[in-house]
């Protein structure tokens, strides 16, 4: 039989997963708005305002949208990681997919920053900041990935620990 505290712990985890899903959903909706409304509108506006760099409208818009798509794939992979129960090997695949999508996005953003700052000579110090930020987020992903895998491993171990988990919970004082 499970203890009542196990059920409370499970409910806290379910609430945290639900809150995480809401946050991921909001980020996904925001990314879609940025992808379909903000980037094309800003690119067109800047192309009209600065005709000397109008030739960069299409390549930078395309690369920015590709980075947003990679971010959306990372979000969907994170959603799947949050949805896993810790029982199968697909957890690691979803973490790998999220990491690959994250690094794809960072490489695209770093490429845009390098091209804009060093080759096209536009953007100024903001391009250096974008490059440094991309590198920092890549390092953070490398540091956090093993911790996520360990968390999933621990969840797998704790979810298979009880022999009779299908029984109803019993309160300690009953």
Q: Quote the distance from N terminus to C terminus.
A: 13 Å
Order of helices and strands: HHHH
Q: Helix segment count?
A: 4
Helix content: over 70%
What is the alpha-carbon Rg in Å?
Answer: 22 Å
Folded structure, characterized:
The protein is mainly α. It has one domain. The chain is built from four helices and no strands. The protein has helices at 4-49, 57-83, 90-119, 125-159. The longest helix has 46 residues, at 4-49. The two termini are 13 Å apart. Residues 4-9 and 162-174 have low confidence and may be disordered.
Brief characterization of the structure:
This protein is mostly helical and 174 residues long. It is built from four helices and no strands.
Chart the SSEs and their pairings.
Elements: H1 4-49, H2 57-83, H3 90-119, H4 125-159
Structure keywords:
0% strand; mainly alpha; elongated; 174 residues; disordered C terminus; single chain
